[in-house]
Amino acid sequence: MKYIEMSKISISNDKKHTLLMLHGWGCDKNVFKDYIRDLNNNFNVIAFDLYGFGQSVSPEPFFDTYEYALQVYLYLKDKGIKEISILGHSFGGRLALILSTCFELKVNKLVLTGSAGLKPKRGIVYYYKIYKYKLLKKLCSKSAKLSGSKDYNNANNILKKVLVKVVNQDLTYLLGFVKSNTLLVWGRKDKDTPYYVFKKFKKNIEKVKYYLISNAAHYCLFSHMYLCKNKVREFLLDG
Q1: What is the DSSP secondary-structure string of 47-87?
Q2: Which residues face 8 on adjacent strands?
Q3: Which of 28, 67, 150, 172 could bridge across to 54 with cysteines, CB 3.0–4.6 Å?
Q4: pLDDT tens digits, one per residue of 186-239
Q5: pLDDT digits over 14-25, tens only?
């Protein structure tokens, strides 16, 4: 099976270890530009525009989290890359979990920041919003658009179908299979992947370190870049 080409930044130095950076939903590879600049002397850095974002082509309608991860794996396999470290933010964390547990790929270090992948806690407010959205969709598509999530409303029709599948895929079962040395970088005020998600990752991943920023939210990797870059660099270069 041949991978579908994705737009990428690839900074190569054959004498050094490979570091793969995977961005979140709605972002692109350029969010990592400062990290790439900081780490390219120590690693072969690869950063993709995942399908549907940046300069890459739209995914196929059948895509889900596993298909995204498979396409990344096929690229690495095609390039003969068998050993790697991964930094994944949000949706990129989903892919990092799958890549580090489901494929013949040695992942030495794993950095997960605001990582998605766990089934969210959903109370009565959530289900009220869902039923309200479905009703508004029947009555008036414009009103329904105002009620949907930002990611959903900003997506084209194909990405909307893919996103619905992605957000409903629970990867909790993979946490116990993660054998890589793992660093969690998280914002205590994260509302997209809340604190309880961080705690579950911390509890269920075997070899885990963490850096929790009390006044940061979902994009702490970028909003608190100086602090996070130091922690990420130290972790990746240790040992």
Answers
A1: EE--TTSTTSPPPPTT--HHHHHHHHHHHHHHTT--EEEEE
A2: 48
A3: 28
A4: 999 999 999 999 999 999 999 999 999 999 999 999 999 999 999 999 999 996
A5: 667 999 999 999
